[in-house]
Q: What sequence folds into this?
């Protein structure tokens, strides 16, 4: 049972970690929590439903287009934030909430509030490994999430754009003095986080079905995970997501299934109270 | 004669406080001009105007014949002006080598740049530290890294803001030799703000005396020392 709970927790934790990663990436670029992240991701999933299922486009065409759309939506969110006159934190957060409501409104007005199925994954098979059984679809989701997290980590660490994004996030003025366009790097960060959010929504869609509020809970859990790991730490956010997924899985089995969602909210309160910078952030706070 | 950097009648103020009143300056290619003057003379404001952090309210400022007025910080950097600070502005999560890669990043792909970057690290005495991150470097090593980063960005003009501040006597001597060697090899120009006159004497081809936001005299070190402006300043 422990292995089953652990594997279930890891799978759902990976999806939380993706949302946390997306939130953390945009937060590092702007110091703003992008609350539109969840509903822009839902909108992307609905677009895939429209193009791949309703219009019967090939998945090889529809999927890249959806990811491009999600990237553009993230980019546009950052541009809107940059255009706020006399910007401050409150106005910025209100703007992301406004975008969230707008995306929710677009989804409900076009697709209604009924649940819909998005069948983009192959039929799920049960795979047996010794005494344990795994769902093939879950394994694919897990693999995609892990590859994506590794890809973002490696890209940020070793690629030219990754270095520029890191520098822009750590010290914008010093980055500009090196000739780096910080505003482009911010928009790029939002674009990438939009794309990560959309992939999380597509991986979650077989579990929860498509409905306009499908990403509210994952967004909340991703936010809790990012707070737990430290909003400015990508590794911390990922670790926070995995820990939250596993903790929920055990809490749901041993303590209470209906109340397991409260765990994330409780964690947010406890972490913000005891360690407001999260668990993984202290290392890179050195000012030079 | 055409200069690499030419500044005429530059003025800047913060509200009612005049920081720069009338600064004139000319810097020839591959030369070093030291700016000296008391605290509050406007040296840092001048550096901030050249690098685009402040927008001057009056005067002209041109680099390689091109006006810098109205250009953004990153546009000015891309023209070939790099800068160091008294407290090095480094990135805590990047290694020494990555700092140099970052300096090259805005100009194109990183492929093929590694031999040049390793050479710069060797010339700056940082080869053995290429995998280290700034928090584990000494203050002197952090300053060397700031200069190595300027070289990696192919800057033609480097603004050195009090580079010897906080260095020990041995580090200062090493720093003078380092800059002299690098200038010979990489052929860049320097605008130097420095309070320590031994450093100025060792590095500068010319000295500009600045006081209360005004240029008083620009000449070679010996001529400046003989000038009445200098005697008044020292007195």
A:
């Amino acid at each position: 049972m422990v292995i089953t709970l652990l594997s279930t927790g890891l799978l759902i934790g990976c999806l939380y970690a993706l949302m946390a990663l997306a939130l953390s990436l945009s937060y590092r670029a702007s110091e703003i929590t992008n609350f539109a992240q969840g509903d822009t991701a839902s909108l992307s999933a609905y677009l895939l439903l429209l193009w791949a299922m309703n219009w019967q486009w090939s998945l090889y065409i529809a999927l890249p287009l959806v990811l491009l759309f999600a990237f553009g939506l993230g980019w546009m969110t950052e541009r809107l934030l940059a255009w706020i006159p006399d910007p401050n934190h409150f106005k910025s957060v209100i703007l992301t909430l406004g975008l969230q409501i707008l995306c929710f409104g677009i989804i409900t007005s076009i697709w209604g509030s009924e649940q819909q199925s998005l069948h983009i994954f192959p039929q799920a098979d049960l795979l047996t490994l010794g005494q344990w059984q795994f769902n093939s679809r879950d394994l694919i989701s897990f693999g995609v999430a892990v590859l994506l997290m590794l890809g973002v980590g490696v890209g940020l660490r070793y690629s030219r754009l990754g270095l520029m994004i890191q520098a822009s996030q750590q010290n914008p003025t010093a980055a500009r003095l090196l000739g780096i366009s910080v505003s482009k790097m911010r928009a790029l960060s939002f674009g990438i986080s939009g794309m990560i959010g959309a992939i999380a929504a597509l991986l979650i869609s077989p579990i929860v079905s498509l409905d306009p509020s499908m990403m509210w809970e994952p967004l909340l859990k991703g936010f809790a995970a990012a707070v737990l790991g430290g909003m400015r730490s990508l590794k911390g956010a990922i670790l926070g997501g995995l820990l939250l997924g596993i903790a929920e899985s055990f809490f749901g089995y041993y303590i209470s299934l209906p109340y397991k969602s409260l765990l994330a909210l409780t964690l947010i309160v406890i972490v913000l109270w005891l360690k407001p910078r999260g668990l993984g952030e202290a290392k890179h706070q050195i000012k030079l | 004669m055409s200069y690499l950097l030419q500044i005429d009648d530059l003025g800047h103020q913060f509200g009612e406080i005049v920081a720069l009143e009338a600064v004139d300056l000319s810097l020839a290619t591959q030369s070093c001009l030291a700016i000296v003057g008391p605290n509050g003379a406007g040296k840092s404001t001048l550096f901030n105007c050249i690098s685009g952090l402040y927008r001057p309210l009056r005067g002209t400022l041109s680099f390689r014949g091109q006006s810098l007025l109205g250009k953004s910080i990153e546009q000015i950097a891309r023209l070939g002006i790099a800068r160091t600070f008294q407290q090095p502005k480094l990135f805590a999560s990047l290694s020494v080598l990555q700092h140099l890669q970052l300096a090259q990043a805005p100009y194109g792909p990183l492929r093929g740049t590694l031999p040049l970057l390793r050479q710069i690290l060797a010339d700056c005495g940082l080869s053995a530290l290429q995998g280290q991150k700034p928090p584990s470097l000494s203050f002197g090593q952090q300053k060397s890294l700031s200069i190595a980063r300027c070289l990696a960005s192919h800057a033609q003009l480097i603004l050195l803001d009090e580079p010897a501040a906080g260095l020990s006597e041995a580090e200062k001597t090493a720093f003078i030799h380092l800059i002299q060697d690098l200038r010979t090899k990489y052929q860049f120009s320097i605008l130097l703000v420095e309070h320590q006159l031994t450093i100025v004497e060792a590095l500068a081809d010319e000295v500009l005396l600045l006081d209360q936001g005004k240029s008083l005299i620009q000449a070679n070190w010996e001529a400046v020392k003989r000038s009445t402006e200098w005697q008044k300043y020292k007195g």
Observations:
- The mean pLDDT of chain B is 93.
- Residues 169-186 of chain B form the longest helix (18 residues).
- The interface with chain A takes residues 51, 53, 72-74, 77-78, 82-83, 87-94, 98, 101-103, 105-107, 109-110, 134-135, 142, 149, 153 of chain B (CB under 8 Å).
- The first strand of chain B starts at residue 5 and ends at 14.
